[in-house]
Amino acid sequence: MQYALTKHMLENRSFVLEADFLQGRYGNRVYVNSTINFIAVDSTEATIQIGSNWRVGPNGVGGVTAKGRITKWELTENEKKNTFHLAMNVMTSIGIYDVRFSIGSDGRTNARLSGLRSGHLTFDGDLVPLAESSVFEGQSI
Fold first, then answer.
1. In whole angstroms, what is the distance from residue 105 CA to residue 25 CA?
2. CATH topology of domain 2-132
C-alpha cells in the first residue's frame, strides 16, 4: 500500500521529503526538526529548506529557503525491489541545485543535494503527500 502511495506521489509530482536527519559531505549526521528541514515538490516547482530551532536566518526559521522551477525530472522505478530513483534540477534565485532521491518501498527517502560549489548535503526522512505535510515554509530569498 505504501509503495502504491509513493508511486502516486511521484507520478503526480506532489510530495514532501520531511527530513529527520541532515548529513554533510564529511559524514556528520545531525538530527533535525522535520517541520523546517524539507524538500517539497509541487508540480513544476520545488522548495528546498534548511532550518534550526536555535538560530535566526534569512528565512526566519534559522536557515535558508530556496524556491524555484524544476528544469529536469528523471524518474526510474525498480519494480523488483519496489524502489524509485528521482533526479531533478531546481533553478532558484540563489543557485541551481541537483537533487537525487533514493526512495524505498516504505517511503523512507534519502536526497542528495548539490549545487555549483563543491560539497553536498543529504536529507534523510519520510516522503509524505504534499496535502498531508506538516512543514513550515520560511521566507525564500
1. 26
2. Lipocalin (2.40.128)
What is the rounded end-to-end Cα distance, in angstroms, of the chain?
A: 38
* pLDDT on residue 89: 98
| CA diameter of the chain | 45
Q: What confidence score (pLDDT) does residue 134 get?
A: 93
Q: Report d(CA 31, CA 19) in Å as an integer.
A: 9
Query: Over the stretch 70-83, which tens digit does the pLDDT of each residue have?
Result: 999 999 999 999 99
The segments of the chain whose pLDDT lies below 70 read: none
